[in-house]
Amino acid sequence: xxxxxxxxxxxxxxxxxxxxxxxxxxxxxxxxxxxxxxxxxxxxxxxxxxxxxxxxxxxxxxxxxxxxxxxxxxxxxxxxxxxxxxxxxxxxxxxxxxxxxxxxxxxxxxxxxxxxxxxxxxxxxxxxxxxxxxxxxxxxxxx
Length: 143
What we know:
This protein is of the alpha+beta class. The protein has helices at residues 2-11, 13-21, 45-58, 73-89, 101-109, 115-121; strands at residues 25-32, 35-42, 65-71, 91-94, 137-140. Helix content is 46%, strand content 22%.
């Protein structure tokens, strides 16, 4: 059994190194049901995905590996808290006489050439970036 553990640790060595690199806290590493059993807690979903990407590079079927990698509760709460914050950063603007998307872009982003961001965010009501109407309420995405 010790030989099998060493063989599987060697086979999945690159994936185990990714665990360390991305900060996944290892809780268990042993043989269970003739498979390498790995349990750990990832600091983020991205870290967990990097581990799984490496496992699949080693062996796409990973038939001799069982991994139980959870994302920490703190990381899950943080990602949920960030989503509304990002949405809140978007604002709206009511088009005034003489406005162009470039002028509005200059006002919000300090750069007139960023007007396509505003156009893209408002495709539901704009078909041409040169045709905006006084009184239209445009969504202004976060910079």
